[in-house]
Amino acid sequence: MARIQASFVCQACGAASGKWAGRCEACGGWNTIAEERAAPPLGMTARRATRGRVIALEDLKTEEDAPPRRATGIAEFDRVCGGGVVPGSALLVGGDPGVGKSTLILQALAAYANSGGSAVYISGEEAMGQVRLRAARMGLAEAPVDMGAATCVEDILATLAAGPPPGLVAIDSIQTIWTSALDAAPGTIAQVRTASFDLVRYAKTSGAAIVLVGHVTKDGQIAGPKAVEHLVDAVLYFEGERGHHFRVLRAVKNRFGATDEIGVFDMTGAGLVEVANPSALFLGDRNSIAPGAAVFAGLEGTRPLLVEVQALVAQTSYGTPRRAVVGWDGGRLAMILAVLDARAGLGAGGHDVYLNVAGGLEIGEPAADLAAAAALVSSLSGRALPRDTVFFGEISLSGDIRPAPQPELRLREAAKLGFATAVVPPGIKAGSSGLVLREVHNVDDLANLAGSPNRQARKAAP
Predict the structure, then answer these.
(1) 461 confidence band (pLDDT: 50, 70, 90)
(2) How far apart are CA 446 and CA 435, in angstroms?
(3) Torsion over CA: 51, 52, 54, 60 (sign)
């Protein structure tokens, strides 16, 4: 009889250790280590290594056709996937509970099935009656989607192998799937790893595309990322704030497409609706003329996106000024404030500073520095910025404004939405956009443009 080996595995990060501990040394999580037992395959220690076979080697110049795509019919979903789902690939879709992952996947399967494809939906969390109620509410009850409720991976694979391979298979969710080959409880790292590997192997051998739905932990990470993310071909995050009706599908890994594409959806009572012009959604009406608001011309993948950056600089009521940031990096805000104080004499270091990206969108592009700085200067001076002006550019520690990639796309998107002026780094051409460009070389020029009170006081001094 094979000897049973015991190991202690962190259920948050997948790190293994030889003994139990209250705190994981890898991720710092408390009470996340659990004992897992697994028996090695029979005869593994007695079997001798066989001689390998020779594989064919090719040069880098070998040309192959682009992988075929299976378009689901949901344009925003297909955009993030790189133009459609690749046959034989595995996708992992993660998001917060209640954000709409199951709704998105069910709509994608229904659209693919209505276009003539074969789609299978396996539910491990909900009963089949609950899934039918959701489909009826979204008007998808007539879609020819095969549906089943199962949690054992052997049962799922046997069901899929009983007929022709489907074009698209969704597993909702991977944390509920377990295999009888392990004694560990469902949802543990060992079960998630083994079940995911079996499903990915089925996708590679059969040509069916597998979509795995994964839950997100308190830290915003997909549960078991070390065990799942390296197995799949694409990792997509479905993001959204509970107070906002829009949802963003973002690719963080994609072996068959770009990793910085996003898809924007609007959550309604009848399901998710694609947003063809997300810039108009994030900008809103913008009827207010209060100071502290600047429009940033951003870029998410190949899609230009305009979003409003709002800032409020107020007198502090405590000994230590407060910094609050929503939708941007807090460290980046501290750096911009330091550069404005040191290079432009703004004097905002002793004030409370609040920065918000309108609509709840998360921005990670360095080109948003100029828009954030303009909003900060505008709020401190009490002078509103022109509503028909957009900003983009990166601010260096020396105070210089550096260019941003692909300015033509940003300017064309701004012109399409009715903007007339763009404050940009030096050396950028307006091209066919027709916008009036105002170049700023450093934060000193930006302070003069936005009306810094300290700058105006120094000019008026004799």
Answers:
(1) very low
(2) 19
(3) negative
The pLDDT, as a whole number, for residue 1 is: 43
Instruction: Look at the alpha carbons of 251, 253, 255, 258 in this order and tell me if their dihedral is positive or negative.
Output: positive
Helices then strands, counting H and E runs in the chain, come out as: 12, 21
What pLDDT, in 10s, does the model give residues 362-378?
Answer: 898 999 999 999 999 99
The model scores a pTM over 0.85: no
Tokens encoding 307: 């979003």
The token pair at 385 is: 């910025």
Q: Measured between alpha carbons, how far is 296 from 217 in angstroms, rounded to an integer?
A: 31
Question: Coil, strand, or helix at residue 188?
Answer: coil
Which backbone phi and psi does 217 adopt, to 5 degrees? -80, 180
Are 23 and 8 within 8 A, CB to CB? no
Q: Which of 126-135, 267-276, 425-434 has the highest mean pLDDT?
A: 126-135
Listed residue (311, 292, 296) closest to 395, CA to CA = 296
Backbone torsion region of residue 11, taken as left when φ is above 0, otherwise alpha when ψ lies between -120 and 50, otherwise beta: alpha
Please tell me the predicted confidence (pLDDT) of residue 449: 87
For the chain, list the domains and their CATH numbers: 5-38 (no CATH), 75-276 (3.40.50.300), 281-460 (3.30.230.10)
Digit-coded pLDDT (tens) for 57-79: 888 876 777 778 999 999 999 99
Question: CB-side exposure of 440: number of CA atoms within 13 Å?
Answer: 28
Cis peptide before 288, with omega less than 30 degrees from 0? no
